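Sample intake sheet
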Amino acid sequence: MGKCGRPHGPERHWLDVPFSQRNAARERGALWDAAARRWHAPEPGLPELQQWTALPDLPSPLPGEDLGFSAGLVVDSVPDCWFTSVRECVGELDHERLRRMVTGRAGQECEACARSAQPSTKRWLEVHERWDFDSDAGMQILRRLVCLCTPCHNATHFERVRKYGGHRMEQTARAHLAAVTGMTDEAVDQHIRSASLLRVQRSRQEWTLDLSILTDAGLDPQPPPPSTKPSRAPLQGHHGGSPERKKSRIPQQGGSVRRRGRRRR
């Protein structure tokens, strides 16, 4: 294989460039390796690219991560915390390390539908969290990270799509869920209703986030400051935050973060 086709050849001086900073990195001389799907510097030690120098690879699986947990495509029943994601908690550079690890171990394919990224149709590969809930202990535990393409990610966040995406996007997500899972229309409707009811039930409880699979990997997740508005648009071209609840998250020892939901008065 030629020089450009070797994803891990010794000539590569790898960079960790978050997607939002790709244009800035390109303007400063960074080069894109399509085979490795990573940015690299043309030569080592360039000061203008120093901020993106690649950090060591993260272990796979992450310490304590359960790769068999919650497989397939399902509608999430996560409490009202749509804008509290791993991306926001770990920062862009560490999230790029996580993205690189998760998409790499998935073979650059969605783990739900086995499709690869297709930039021309705005289908990307994205990192999604799978949570476990211990209602007796009030623990919301991050069990694993999964690689999903954009359509599967939208279907997983069906409640968010329905709230912000409009009728056409809602129908697209519903149809994609049916196509990937093989469920009938009636079964899809029942699955969505059950997930929605469970999400509402869970949103009434106070939860402590257990992010130990991240902290045990050497990351230092920090929740964003409490806010009534998301730090970014929930869907492309759509904006808005939840009108019902504020979120307050308090760092806890042992890799946990507490989230409190307060009703507006």
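Comment: The CA atoms of residues 129 and 145 lie 5 Å apart. Residues 185-203 form the longest helix (19 residues).
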